[in-house]
């Protein structure tokens, strides 16, 4: 009897051990902990708090996330890499950071490491190019985010406003396709409180447009599309000589500075979120902003413009650069000094796979996880019928990324980029508060020449 | 029979005790203060960047020459000195006025004293956010008030007055510190001096000029040194309120160092900036401290 009981007890103890191979097969990385370093964007909270968490559990991985500010993230990764600390396994990578992260060894090259099932060919070519540095892929792009023009359809369609516009400018009030029209429309809709707008007396000042002009990054991410639309460049990538005070660049600077009176007065210190909020609260006629932000405009619970706005491609200034827009790419890479690269790659492929990407794109915002990621640059996701039905404006994103009808461009790929951005945005910011464009741009050009000279560029 | 203790034994033991007690302080000074400082000086002669840690060059005095010829450095230095002098002076005058007021007896004195001290306990970053919101050109109540009164508005967006917005936040934050230091000194001035002066027919103004201010002299100097050192390092409020802008209108020396070190990763250049700024401030404070010491010895001999 005792013998029988002992055998039963032994079996009970052994049972979990005997079934271990089955678990190991289902959860191949059971017991592995992966650490993720990310910036606290809404869409990253959703990915890492919901979809990646579930995918990690499926693989048996314990996923731990550390959140940082934009600068804190960059500084932490650079410091940990320098100290040779294997703290991280997966890291969020901003398109601007990719060259310096790849160059410093913070990111693991991923060329040839993806499985056939992952279907790399399904990704937009633009997005893959953006995460390629010196011939190697260093991250998986998960969002290709161009700028879009959002405008108050109700105002543009108002007969009274249309007549007043035509009387003042001599042509019809239309959604601007070039920056001359854009300036006219911005000027036209800028009104003081007490004046009328679409037949209603305004309680507060109303502005024609808005931009986030906080130096350096917010201003740069807004300004660069204007600069490129006018044919401007910071430097010639062939000769590596600064061209910041070239004709196109200065023309763009003049246009941008001339728009300042038609933006909310706080524009000089505004972030992207603040600028978008001005539009969402019904205080602005049109804005140029990232799609990742504008697809969520008009929430009936919080917005003053539900059902009153529409989307369009950006204006331009040159025919050879139609609808010129920065298309910003966010990505996720593997930390160069990770000790769990195999598990990190497995998880990365799973969360960047078609199934999770689609679920993340269609994510229904909740109190804790406020944004999904409809801009996943897989062709199969961007052309998904359910996604297009939910976010009709995404058709414009697909058109932007196909590279045919829109001049979409990325950030400059140069290690000195942060310093360059600081120099040029200081110049632009000064022009927005009245400093002469030519003087500021010439001064910045001299600084850029000195910087390029010190870095050894342009020397034969 | 116990062995006789010689004077040389006592002297050796005294030195040993002194060394034991001084060791923690010496370690702190040399390891935590001296070490990083020497390393910063060393870095200032290189072009080292954390992005390319193994590729660095010795560049001699290039970084120092660049500091000398960098208009951004001189502009930020002028701005920082202006900021430090003006805010410290205003904080001193306001702190003194409040201390003199609170020193008098009246109802609600304790409550007022506590209320005045609240800003000191708020973190500089939080102060930055508070004042950013207060002065915001769309939602800021102070901005609204300025508009209503016909005063210049949108302080944070105007390069000519943005620095005054930051100064306003600093004065709000640190005037209570001045008040606290001065009040603590005022309260230990013997009452009989006032009584004797009153018997001699001295009025309030004469008591202030001839008794209180002379007796506050040392405390005022200490307060000026402490506050001006802190004001010279202003950073959090600027980052949050203006980010150094509009343009570079509020870019102080600490902002410049931060931008070069942590945005551009130019550690060599930013180290040279630190060394130059440190040398300048040390020279100023050496004069300060010498004056304080001189005054002390002077008062002791009287």
Class per helix and strand makeup of chain B: mainly alpha
Q: Beta-strand percentage of chain A? A: 15-25%
Largest sheet of chain A: 9 strands, mixed
Span of the ends, CA to CA of chain B = 51 Å
Strand content of chain B: under 5%
Q: How much helical structure, as a percent, in the residues of chain B?
A: over 70%
Q: Based on DSSP secondary structure assignment, what is the total number of beta strands of chain A?
A: 15
How many helices of chain A? 20
| Helix content bin of chain A | 40-55%
Order of helices and strands of chain B: HHHHHHHHHHHH
Describe the structure.
The complex is a heterodimer of chains A (460) and B (302). Chain A has 460 residues and is an alpha/beta fold. Chain A is built from 20 helices and 15 strands. Chain A has helices at 2-18, 20-26, 42-59, 70-82, 98-104, 125-130, 153-156, 159-169, 179-189, 217-229, 247-259, 272-280, 291-294, 341-351, 354-361, 379-382, 385-390, 394-401, 417-432, 437-455, and strands spanning 33-39, 62-68, 90-94, 132-133, 136-137, 140-152, 196-197, 200-201, 207-210, 235-236, 241-242, 284-290, 309-312, 325-334, 408-409. In chain A, strands 1, 2, 3, 6, 9, 12, 13, 14 and 15 form a 9-stranded mixed sheet that branches. Chain A is globular. With 302 residues, chain B is mainly α. Helices cover 74% and strands 0% of the residues of chain B. At the A-B interface, helix 4, helix 5 and helix 19 of A face helix 11 of B.
């Amino acid at each position: 009897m005792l013998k029988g009981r002992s055998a039963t007890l032994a079996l009970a103890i052994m049972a979990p051990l005997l079934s271990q191979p089955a678990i190991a097969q289902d959860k191949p990385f059971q017991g592995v902990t992966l650490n993720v370093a990310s910036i606290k964007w809404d869409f990253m909270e959703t990915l890492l708090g919901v979809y990646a968490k579930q995918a990690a559990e499926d693989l048996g991985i314990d996923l731990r996330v550390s959140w940082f500010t934009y600068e804190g993230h960059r500084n932490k990764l650079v410091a940990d890499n320098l100290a040779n600390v294997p703290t991280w396994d997966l890291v969020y990578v901003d398109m601007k950071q990719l060259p310096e992260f790849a160059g410093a060894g913070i990111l693991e090259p991923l060329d040839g490491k993806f499985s056939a099932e992952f279907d790399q060919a399904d990704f937009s070519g633009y997005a893959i190019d953006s995460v390629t540095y010196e011939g190697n892929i260093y991250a998986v792009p998960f969002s290709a985010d161009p700028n879009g023009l959002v405008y108050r359809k109700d105002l543009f369609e108002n007969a009274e406003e249309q007549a007043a516009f035509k009387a003042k400018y001599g042509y019809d009030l239309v959604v601007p396709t070039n920056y001359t029209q854009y300036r006219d429309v911005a000027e036209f809709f800028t009104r003081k409180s007490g004046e009328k707008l679409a037949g209603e007396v305004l309680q507060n000042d109303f502005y024609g447009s808005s931009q986030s002009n906080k130096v350096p990054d917010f201003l740069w991410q807004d300004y660069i599309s204007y600069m490129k639309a006018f044919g401007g460049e910071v430097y010639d990538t062939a000769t590596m000589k600064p061209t910041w005070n070239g004709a196109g660049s200065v023309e763009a600077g003049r246009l941008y500075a001339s728009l300042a009176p038609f933006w909310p007065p706080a524009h000089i210190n505004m972030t992207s979120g603040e600028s978008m909020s001005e539009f969402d609260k019904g205080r602005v006629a049109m804005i140029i902003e990232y799609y990742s932000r504008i697809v969520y405009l008009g929430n009936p619970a919080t917005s003053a413009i539900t059902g009153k706005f529409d989307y369009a491609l950006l204006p331009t200034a040159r025919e050879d650069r139609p609808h010129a827009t920065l298309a910003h790419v966010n990505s996720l890479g593997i930390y160069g000094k990770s000790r769990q690269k195999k598990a990190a790659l497995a998880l990365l492929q799973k969360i960047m796979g078609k199934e999770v990407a689609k679920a993340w794109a269609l994510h229904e915002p909740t109190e804790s996880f406020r944004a999904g990621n409809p801009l996943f640059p897989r062709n199969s996701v961007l052309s998904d019928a359910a996604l297009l039905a939910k976010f009709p404006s995404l058709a414009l994103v697909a058109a932007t990324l196909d590279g045919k009808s829109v001049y979409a461009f990325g950030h400059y790929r140069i290690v000195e980029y942060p310093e360059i951005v600081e120099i040029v945005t200081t110049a632009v910011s000064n022009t927005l508060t009245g400093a002469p464009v030519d003087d500021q741009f010439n001064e910045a050009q001299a600084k850029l020449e000195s910087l390029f000279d010190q870095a050894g560029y342009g020397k034969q | 029979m116990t062995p006789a203790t010689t004077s040389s034994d006592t002297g050796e033991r005294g030195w040993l005790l002194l060394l034991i007690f001084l060791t923690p302080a010496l370690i702190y000074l040399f390891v935590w203060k001296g070490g990083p400082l020497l390393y910063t000086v060393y870095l200032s002669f290189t072009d080292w960047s954390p992005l390319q840690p193994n590729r660095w060059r010795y560049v001699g005095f290039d970084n120092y020459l660049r500091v000398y010829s960098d208009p951004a450095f001189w502009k930020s230095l002028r701005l920082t000195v202006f900021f430090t002098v003006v805010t410290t002076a205003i904080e001193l005058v306001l702190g003194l006025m409040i201390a003199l007021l609170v020193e008098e007896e009246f109802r609600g004195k304790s409550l007022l004293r506590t209320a005045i001290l609240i800003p000191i306990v708020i973190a500089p970053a939080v102060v930055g956010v508070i004042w950013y919101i207060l002065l915001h050109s769309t939602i800021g109540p102070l901005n609204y008030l300025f508009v209503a009164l016909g005063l210049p508005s949108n302080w944070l967006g105007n390069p000519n007055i943005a620095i005054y917005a930051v100064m306003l936040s600093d004065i709000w934050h640190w005037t209570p510190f001045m008040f606290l230091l001065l009040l603590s000194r005022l309260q230990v001035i013997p009452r009989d001096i006032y009584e004797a002066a009153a018997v001699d027919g001295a009025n309030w103004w004469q008591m202030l000029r001839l008794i209180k201010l002379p007796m506050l002299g040392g405390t005022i100097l200490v307060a000026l040194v402490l506050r001006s050192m802190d004001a010279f390092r202003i950073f959090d409020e600027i980052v949050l309120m203006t980010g150094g802008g509009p343009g570079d209108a509020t870019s102080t020396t600490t902002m410049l160092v931060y931008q070069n070190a942590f945005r551009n990763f130019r550690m060599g250049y930013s180290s040279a900036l630190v060394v130059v700024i440190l040398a300048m401030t040390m020279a100023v404070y050496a004069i300060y401290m010498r004056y304080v010491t001189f005054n002390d010895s002077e008062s002791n001999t009287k």
